[in-house]
Amino acid sequence: MSPLIRSALPVRRAALSATALAATLALAGCNPSGGSTQGDGKRSPDVPTATGEPGSALAALGSLTVKGRAPKTGYERDRFGTAWADTDSNGCPTREDILKRDLTQVQYQDGHCKVSKGELAKDPYTGQRVIFRRGSSLVDIDHVVALSDAWQKGAQQWPAGKRIALANDPLNLIAVGASANRQKSDGDAATWLPANKGYRCDYVAQQVAVKKKYGLWVTRAEKAAMGKVLNTCPAEQLPAGGNPTEAPPRFHAN
Predict the structure, then answer these.
(1) What is the pLDDT of residues 170-215, one digit of tens each?
(2) DSSP character at residue 195
(3) pTM of the predicted model as reported, rounded to 2 decimal places
(4) Where would I find the H helices in the chain?
(5) Residue 78 has what DSSP assignment?
């Protein structure tokens, strides 16, 4: 055998071994470059391994349960109680509490509670200045974890008091520009993120905090999207606070 042929044999054997390995991985549903492949050969999103520091949103992300989205069957807004119930018993509806918290230059119709005018100096979702005037629709109060999303990820199994608590928890509420809020609709982090990139870490951290507090799960794609954002800010702390996870018994929902 000539030296040329002899030297070519190891190369050919290596090529055959690589081909066999690739075939084995494909049959097992694996992708040599990382992740896994679905039955149609498309790569499925990876669930990130959360390695953030204790107390960070990234670390908390790793503790959330991953499950598929349940059907939306049976969802209605009133399953979460009357809108903006005064669950903290301070004499003001929840919506007014959030307007007072998030707006500047606030003016009142009644001296202390009913906001008539104010300014959202920087809309968290767009970064733009928005003026609030009662009767207009330029400012919304957004559920950071949408109620429909919560319904499909655990809330339909809850007692009414817990659903009412989620709908009125300041931890899950923020004043934002109406246009961006309506674009978001009931999307999760896999389908919608704020156009204001500088706010995305805060936004996702708040979603993680709400889902952890209430025991809501996330989908595989949602967790991957959250991890992608939080990996850019691994020290982002997990927000805390808000109301108890059970509304007072005087409140009712369908």
Answers:
(1) 999 999 999 999 999 999 999 999 999 999 999 999 999 999 999 9
(2) S
(3) 0.82
(4) 3-27, 57-61, 94-102, 147-151, 160-167, 178-184, 200-214, 220-230
(5) G
